[in-house]
Amino acid sequence: MFMEAQEMSHVVVRKPPLSAKAILHQKYGEKACYKVEEVVEPVENDCPGLAIPQRGQVLYQCQLELPGCSVTSDKFTKKKDAEQSAAKMALEKLGIQCVSKDLTPEEALDELIMRISSLFTDKFLSAIHPMVSHFRAAIEREGDSFGMVPVSIIAACDVKVNNLCKVINPKAESEPLVAVSLVLKAARLSDSVRIDDQGLSIGKIGPYSSDSRQSLIDHPMCTNDILVEALYIPSSIEKAIETFNLKVSPGLYYMDEISQRLGVKDSSYILVSRTIGKASSETRFYFSFPRFPLSSPDSSPVSHLEEDINFRASHLSGQNICGGAVLATVGYTWKSRDLFYEDVSICTYYRPIRTVYRRAAL
Predict the structure, then answer these.
(1) CA–CA separation, 66 vs 60, rounded Å?
(2) In a domain, 116, yes or no
(3) Do the domain assignments include residue 181?
(4) Comparing C-alpha atoms, which of 151, 152, 148, 132 is closest to residue 217?
(5) Which domain holds residue 65?
(6) Domain-embedded: residue 128
(7) What is the pLDDT of residues 295-330, one digit of tens each?
(8) Distance (Å) of CA 95 to CA 16, 69, 89, 112
(9) 32-91 confidence digits (pLDDT tens)
C-alpha cells in the first residue's frame, strides 16, 4: 500500500561502528563467555488421539557470563541475534555506552529490524518505557486488532526507531510517511512480527505470556473519564481553527478518540508528527493517511500530496502534514505509566508561531 522507502543516503563513514559483542570483546576479551542453548517452544496438541509426536519451533537463548555480571537473552530464531541481544543487555547493565552515530544506512536497517523485533517481546512489556502503554492498549483490543500496534506510533514515539529511520533516509526527518514505510520494511524483514492486512499495524507472531498480559491489564490507562481540550486545524487556510474536547475513558485508547474526530476507521489510519515544542510535552499533530497508494518507490511523498498540504500545521511542526489535523497534548512519558495530558487552546497554538517570527526578525 505504501512506498517502500528504499532510498539510501550515501554516508561517508570514517570508522565502522562496533557491535555490542565487539565492544565487550575489547574490554573483557576471552573472559566474555557466551553459551547458546536451543529452546523448543511447546506445541498445543489439537488432536489428542494423534500418535505422531509434534516438535515445536526451535529458538535460541544466550547466557552471557562476564566478571561480576550475568545476563540471559530473550529467545530468537537465530543464534547470532541471541548473542547480540545478550551483549546489548550486558552493556546496559554495566552502563557502557554503545556508540552508533556512525552507522551506515544498511547497518541502521539491520538495527531497525532488531529494534522492531525486540519491542514485541515479553521482556519489553515489563520494561519502563512510554511505548509499553501503547502495547497495553493493543492487548485490550478484540478480534483482528488484538495485540496490533499502529505503525505510525512506533515510527513517531519510539526515539530509537525514529533516529534509525533518519539514518537510513534523512527524509524521515520531515516526512512522517517515509519513517512509517521504513518501519514497515523492517517489520517485513523480521521473522518475529507480523503486519495486518491493511499494512497499518504490527503485532507479535505468537502469543504473549499470560503473566505479561496480566501485568499490563492490572494497570489501566486511566481510572476515570477525562476531557482534554484540543484543536482541529483544517487543511484550507480559509477555514477557522476549531476547539473541541477529546474524551478519554477507562478502557479506551486515546488514539481511537482522535480517529473519530478525523473521520477514519481507527487509530491505525492516523499519522503522528514529532513533538511540538519541548520533547517532553507530548504535543503532536495527528492526521490521516493519504487515501491513495504511493505508487513509485523512488518518488517523494511530497510530490503526491502537495495539493493537500496543511500549511499551518506543517509550518508549526516542521514536517509535511496533509489534510485536516488534530493538535493535542496527550500521550505517555518516561515519568509515569499513566496517561499524560494538557489542554491545547488557540493561545497555545499561536504562541510558538509568534516565537518563530520573533526569531526570524532578530
Answers:
(1) 20
(2) no
(3) no
(4) 132
(5) 18-42+54-98
(6) no
(7) 333 334 444 455 589 999 999 999 999 999 999 999
(8) 22, 12, 10, 22
(9) 999 999 998 776 655 555 555 566 788 999 999 988 678 888 889 899 999 999 998 888
